[in-house]
């Protein structure tokens, strides 16, 4: 299931040159992933409290293609690429009016609250499968 999330670039997101500071793209895609999981019907706080499962980024590959600037409205597209019993690989792309700005492949892993690897919750795997 792919997902689309819109966000605006605020002054605090930019650097001295007036363009989005590179690390802020990671915040934009994190927010989009949170909304994607929420739209799948998964309550992450309840998942942690009831099953002791949390998600962490294991790997991230990113390409910065063009700058975003103050007051731009960005669209973050999130789409699952691969699913294993303990990992989700996502493609996330940030664009402005259809112009690609940032592209990332993100590998998420399921962990216990103690930090040990665990399987993806069955309900999430079912919804993604």
From TrEMBL:
GO molecular function, one term: fatty acyl-CoA hydrolase activity
The keyword Hydrolase belongs to this UniProt entry's keyword annotation: yes
SUPFAM superfamilies according to UniProt: Thioesterase/thiol ester dehydrase-isomerase (SSF54637)
Domain of life: Bacteria
Residues of the Thioesterase domain: 18-99
Keyword list, A-Z: Hydrolase
InterPro entries: 4-hydroxybenzoyl-CoA_TE (IPR050563), HotDog_dom_sf (IPR029069), Thioestr_dom (IPR006683), Tol-Pal_acyl-CoA_thioesterase (IPR014166), YbgC/YbaW (IPR006684)
Cross-referenced Gene3D superfamilies: Hotdog Thioesterase (3.10.129.10)
Record has Hydrolase as a keyword: yes
Family: Belongs to the 4-hydroxybenzoyl-CoA thioesterase family.
Name of the protein: Putative thioesterase
Species assigned in the record: Oceanicola granulosus (strain ATCC BAA-861 / DSM 15982 / KCTC 12143 / HTCC2516)
């Amino acid at each position: 299931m792919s997902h689309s999330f819109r966000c605006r670039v605020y002054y605090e997101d930019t650097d001295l040159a007036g363009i989005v500071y590179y690390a802020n793209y990671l915040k934009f895609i994190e927010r989009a992933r949170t909304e994607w999981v929420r739209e799948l019907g998964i309550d992450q706080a309840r998942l942690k409290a009831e099953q002791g499962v949390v998600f962490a980024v294991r790997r991230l590959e990113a390409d910065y293609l063009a700058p975003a600037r103050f007051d731009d409205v960005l669209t973050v597209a999130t789409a699952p690429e691969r699913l294993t019993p303990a990992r989700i690989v996502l493609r996330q792309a940030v664009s402005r009016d259809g112009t690609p700005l940032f592209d990332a492949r993100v590998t998420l892993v399921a962990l216990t609250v103690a930090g040990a690897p665990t399987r993806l919750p069955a309900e999430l795997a079912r919804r993604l499968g």
